[in-house]
Specification:
The complex is a heterodimer of chains A (262) and B (410).
Chain A lengths: L1 E2 L1 H13 L8 H31 L11 H8 L4 E9 L4 E3 L12 E11 L16 E7 L2 H7 L13 E7 L2 E7 L4 E8 L8 E3 L5 E3 L7 E4 L3 H15 L3 H19 L1
Parallel strand pairs in A: 5-6
Antiparallel strand pairs in A: 1-11, 2-3, 2-8, 3-7, 4-5, 4-8, 6-7, 9-10
Helix pairs in contact in A: 1-5, 2-3, 2-5, 5-6
Chain B lengths: L7 H5 L2 E5 L9 E5 L23 E6 L8 E2 L4 E4 L2 E5 L6 E6 L19 H5 L5 E3 H12 L11 H18 L5 E6 L5 E3 L6 E8 L5 E6 L33 H8 L3 H4 L6 H11 L23 E5 L4 E4 L7 E7 L10 E3 L3 H14 L6 H22 L4 H8 L9
Parallel strand pairs in B: 12-13
Antiparallel strand pairs in B: 1-7, 2-6, 3-4, 3-7, 5-6, 8-16, 9-15, 10-14, 11-12, 11-15, 13-14
Helix pairs in contact in B: 3-4, 4-8, 8-9
The chains are: A alpha+beta (262), B alpha+beta (410).
Chain lengths: 262, 410
């Protein structure tokens, strides 16, 4: 479940307004919200890598809820989606075309497993190698250098069962060249978070009131609400020039990080 | 979940029955999904079309399902992803998909309707094997991942070492299942099979059907790889393109014309051959070739010889085998055809051990003790596999030993 942006904004305002320290405007808050969401999102990858060493060393716990690597992996679910790529016949590559025009789903941040789908082959070639079965094959993403080597070895040359692909770009967007060319391509992707926005309208007293209809909630999982508040507070302290808030928030964030990784 | 997914009927008869829906959907089509281990191969639905012969199955329908009421379905249908889609089928019609079988199956009423072929036979005994692709997938699941010896491995690496391992296994561990029955033509040579790597045994078949082993000529003769035409002073001559001009081999010609009896010792009561021998080797009180120094066991056999002609990619035979029926048993590398890429289940564990060792031993920074451990593991499993595949059965050994002087009590 996503984090409600109004809850975060009200909490932040409540904390920094204590002792009349200052006020954060909606525009400032929206900028900080975007920045902090990106920071938290991008921290998942190095943190996941670091915590995965416990898996590699067989020192990871097998509890249901206290396996931090598993928890970080879980927090990626809002950004994970298996999408179909579309074949670009002009450039002979597969590309992702955002059906929502970068609405709810933003741009691709990373690509994971690639599945090539091959339809039944009804050709009547001789000898009868005609197969009438569809195949869904895990496709190996290789660097162009490796790809060039792999296709030259008869033992590793790509087949419908073991397809190979490499990444390239067309018009500055990601493109995949798959060999043999499939009939459809499914790619498990991590997408960039959408930009959060605290929408508002001006009340009768000139105050800003939240408009849920024009708001965009944080895409992060609900478990990140505390981190969002603390990290936004950290930046708020800079804006209102209050070192005590910066220090308190930074300490809180650091403590949370240490606890998580130790 | 059991590994067998075919029903008894699918396996033994190669047939699968269906009943069309009582109320057909609209449009009036219905798909029947075949669940054989064998994929359906579809060329055409039309028996008059040449591609129809590509089909590895036939479709029969019956209004009642009573034996003797089935007839071949020869109207238009499509096949995709093992699903046969028929149109305009009366409700509750019984449908049978029959894979081609040597007996023709039991549904066709006429010879033309019978499903003759060997698709079903190809599947018999398949449970003995695992596909190489399945072995690769199993390896990725069981041996690659966080917390395992191989934290990560490219699938292409696993595939490479799996294929290499299968090649090596094919040479000296797996059963040799390839053989060809051939007639020796007047030219006394036959072309090597397309997937030939090395021979196991060559035999001619006598009138009783018993194998008589033919031995390699080894040092007796040779098929020269190059036979350059020489000028009067012995220098090879070249053609207009600067390449040596090749002639036919005189050695091969002489070998083809050779009287084997002069070599193998079959000179009894044949004075003409004795004279030939005298002309060839001189007559100094001994008879045959080699007998000057006593009988040579390796040449004292009447079955004949073969030798490899590497230049022409053929196997040549001695002249006494002209017109004879031979069986060439040989080994391939297990990768020649898709159907070949299967591994006996008795060798599955050895294959995993071999892939594991190959991957770890070719990686940098691996502890040597680990590499050594895996090498020993591989060797032990390979030895086990050889023993398993040798099919050593106590009862059979006892039966063989009964012919010997010593009895074995059991």
């Amino acid at each position: 479940m996503a984090v409600n942006i109004n809850t975060v904004y009200q909490t932040v305002l409540y904390i920094i307004n204590k002792e009349q320290r200052g006020y954060i405007t909606p525009a400032e808050f929206n900028s900080l919200a975007t920045q902090v969401q990106d920071e938290i999102f991008q921290s998942y990858f190095p943190d996941g890598n670091q915590l995965n060493r416990q898996n590699q060393n067989n020192t990871q716990n097998d509890t249901e809820f206290f396996n931090v690597f598993k928890n970080i992996d879980y927090r990626l679910y809002p950004f994970e989606n298996e999408v179909s790529f579309v074949y670009n016949t002009a450039n002979f590559v597969w590309q992702y075309t955002d059906p929502n025009n970068q609405g709810l789903i933003g741009q691709i941040y990373l690509i994971g497993d690639i599945i090539s789908q091959y339809n039944s082959d009804n050709s009547t070639s001789q000898p009868p190698s005609v197969s009438n079965t569809n195949q869904n094959s895990i496709t190996q993403l290789a660097s162009k250098k490796d790809y060039n080597k792999l296709i030259r070895s008869k033992l590793t040359a790509p087949t419908r069962q073991y397809p190979l692909c490499f990444k390239t770009n067309v018009a500055n967007t990601l493109a995949l060249s798959v060999n043999p060319n499939p009939d459809a391509l499914l790619v498990n992707c991590i997408f960039k978070p959408t930009t959060p926005k605290w929408g508002f309208f001006v009340g009768s007293l000139g105050q800003y009131l939240n408009s849920p209809a024009s708001s965009v909630n944080f895409q992060l999982d609900i478990s990140e609400q505390n981190n969002l508040v603390i990290n936004i507070l950290k930046y708020c302290g800079i804006i209102i020039n209050d070192p005590t808030i910066i220090q308190a928030a930074a300490q809180e964030a650091q403590q949370a990080s240490i606890n998580e990784k130790s | 979940m059991g590994l067998i997914t075919e029903t008894n009927q699918q396996y033994y008869q190669g047939a699968q029955g269906f009943s069309s829906l009582a109320v057909l959907p609209n449009p009036n089509t219905q798909a029947f999904i075949a669940t054989f281990d064998t994929d359906l191969i579809f060329g055409s639905w039309n028996p008059t079309d040449a591609s129809y012969a590509l089909n590895n199955f036939k479709v029969y329908t019956s209004p009642t399902g009573i034996p003797g009421t089935y007839s071949e379905y020869v109207l238009a249908y499509t096949v995709e992803n093992n699903a046969i889609t028929l149109t305009g089928l009366p409700s509750s019609t019984k449908v049978v998909i029959q894979l081609k079988v040597l007996s023709g199956g039991k549904y066709g009423q006429t010879e033309a309707e019978k499903a003759y072929g060997n698709t079903v036979e190809d599947n018999y005994g398949s449970y003995e094997y695992i596909k190489l692709t399945d072995a690769v997938d199993n390896f990725m699941v069981g041996y690659v991942g966080d917390g395992k010896l191989i934290q990560n491995a490219k699938k292409s690496d696993v595939l490479f070492f799996a294929k290499r391992s299968l090649q090596e296994f094919s040479y000296d561990t797996l059963k040799s299942i390839h053989s060809q029955e051939l007639n020796i033509p007047a030219s006394l040579s036959v072309i090597l099979p397309q997937d030939y790597v090395n021979y196991v045994r060559v035999s001619f078949i006598d009138p009783l059907g018993v194998k008589r082993i033919i031995y390699p000529a080894n040092n007796l003769t040779i098929a020269p790889f190059e036979t350059p035409i020489q000028d009067q002073v012995g220098v090879p001559t070249q053609d207009n393109f600067g390449e040596n001009i090749e002639g036919t081999s005189l050695t091969v010609e002489r070998w083809k014309k050779a009287n084997d009896n002069l070599i193998n010792g079959q000179l009894v009561n044949n004075i003409d051959e004795a004279v030939d021998f005298q002309n060839a080797y001189g007559f100094e009180g001994s008879w045959n070739w080699g007998r000057q120094y006593g009988l040579d066991p390796q040449t004292s056999q009447i079955n004949g010889w073969f030798n490899m002609d590497e230049r022409e990619g053929k196997m040549s035979f001695s002249s006494n085998l002209a017109g004879k029926l031979i069986v060439l048993e040989y080994i391939s590398d297990g990768l020649a055809y898709d159907l070949d890429t299967k591994v006996p289940k008795l060798a599955e564990d050895a294959l995993y051990a071999s892939i594991l060792y190959s991957i770890v031993s070719t990686r940098s920074g691996q502890q040597e003790y680990l590499v050594q451990r895996l090498q020993k593991d591989r060797r032990a499993k390979l030895r086990n596999t050889k023993i398993r595949l040798s099919n050593i059965k106590l009862d059979e050994i006892v039966q063989v030993m009964r012919g010997k002087s010593k009895w074995i009590k059991h």
